[in-house]
Protein 1
Amino acid sequence: MRLRRKPWIDEAIREYDSFVYLQPQEDLKGRWREVFDNPTAPLWVELGTGKGNFISRLADIHREVNFIGIEVQLGVLYYAAKKCAAAELTNVRLLRFDAAFLETLFAPGEVDRFFINFCDPWPKKRHAKRRLTYRGFLDRYARLLAADGEIHFKSDNAGLFDFTLEEFNARHWPLSEVTY
């Protein structure tokens, strides 16, 4: 989701400095749970948070879980922060970050669940390595997930969905609840 650049967002997002991180937080690698009120809670990470509809609703339902939303675009991250603040969610942290560098952010086994919802399908074959479900990304997720960790993936793009099933199978990952 690409929005037109809005210069006022650079300043407006500062209102949410208590839970929005605009700079990489590599110093928290392996210690993310410490930034939450409940450091023993599971850690669920959404890759590509967008405007925050999913993460704000899920975090509201599951206040016993710690959530991290990762989005590379500041313009949409602002709207996610606004929704989380309106819901008074203390179990959410939002990061402006590129998912390609997740291993600088999280330690092996630190994440309990990844959510990838309606990500950019990168439809051209030559761009396959950029897809968040490309085998290189899946290998990263495998290293970062806890032993019983999960990935939840949703897409409305048939090509990306089929590609993703092939990638999961190539990595011998068990699939459950596959629906079209």
Note: Helices lie at 9-12, 53-61, 74-86, 135-144, 158-170.
Protein 2
Amino acid sequence: MNAATNDQTLAPYARIKQHIIANIESGLWAVNAQVPSENQLAAQFDVSRMTARRAILELTQDGMLVRSQGVGTFVAERRPMLPVLEVRNIADEIAERGHHYGNRIILLERETATEGIAIALGIAPGSPVFHSILLHLDNGVAVQLEDRYVNPHTAPGYIEQDFSRQTPNAYLSRIAPLSAVEHTIEAILPSAQVSAWLGLDSPQACLQVLRRTWTAPHIATFARLIHPGDSYRLSGYATVPAQPAPAFPNPQEFHGTKS
């Protein structure tokens, strides 16, 4: 056991996680290497098997480990998990990986709602909406394009925010607490403009998440989140129950980016 895993101020399961992460990040355990079993870790750290299991399960959910029933647990290929059924601050996700978060603000303005956006937000066509496009960066590399429409009734100060200091998610979580969320997930071929923003040298499939959020009784936001397909994998579980809502507009009607 190295010094990094001998911090007695940590909970036992956290010390096991720290031990596993240290061995992976140091290169001692390479991708596809089998890690010690729950029983072996329990004996090594003098804890119960359930404690060791919690550490392994959490690292599996984080995408660092992969489990094969009846075979064992192995070091996963290092691709961040995209928690599509949760609504998290991407800046926090990047920081938790020990990386530096940054962003580039492409657009932040007031617009009038097209028919497709009006349907998505449950408002009348021509109503005012706030529109933002941000590029989120992980150690300077683009990992998500966030194209978001906001209902001014739920966040009237949205257009005045400095999103170089906080993400839209962080601001909205404080101003318009989430009561429900709805997702549609699909693989897409991005437009030339989106490819340029994401820094894609050649055409490739991307993961697109269409997300609507509610601050009861209003639909608060409608966002399109696009990730390079070779950088993320999907994972997560529902933490907020969905509620009946109008269907998403036809993707052809959703013109979230500008040429």
Note: The longest helix spans residues 12-25.
Protein 3
Amino acid sequence: ADAVRAIAKVAGGIDAIVIDIVEISPLLRERQQQSLANLPVNPRWHEAFDDVSAGPFVLLANEFLDCLPVRQWQRRAGQWYERLVGVDREGQLAMGQAPVPVSVLPLDVGHLDMQDGMIIEHSQAAHR
């Protein structure tokens, strides 16, 4: 609904869009239909991404992207160290860092002004 409100502010925006929603859960589909009932354009629901119309598109996939695994690296003393999840002295999950810096990151960050303390993350699964 937020994306449609933003598109509506652009002249001719509403007339130029088609909304295809992929949702496999009947319960979530029903909730989406209720919450999107007053949109100025009628969404179409699908069971699979393959059922979505061909052509240029913008993909909004918040929950899907949130569930993909990511790896993180933090810059320290001019080098990159992978951030890891482990168990602390009290037996609780905690973030930590690998003891040895990585020699190569799986993505190009050379164009970024990365300072010590900054964190980057990458999801290989998002690129498949």
Note: The longest helix spans residues 26-35.
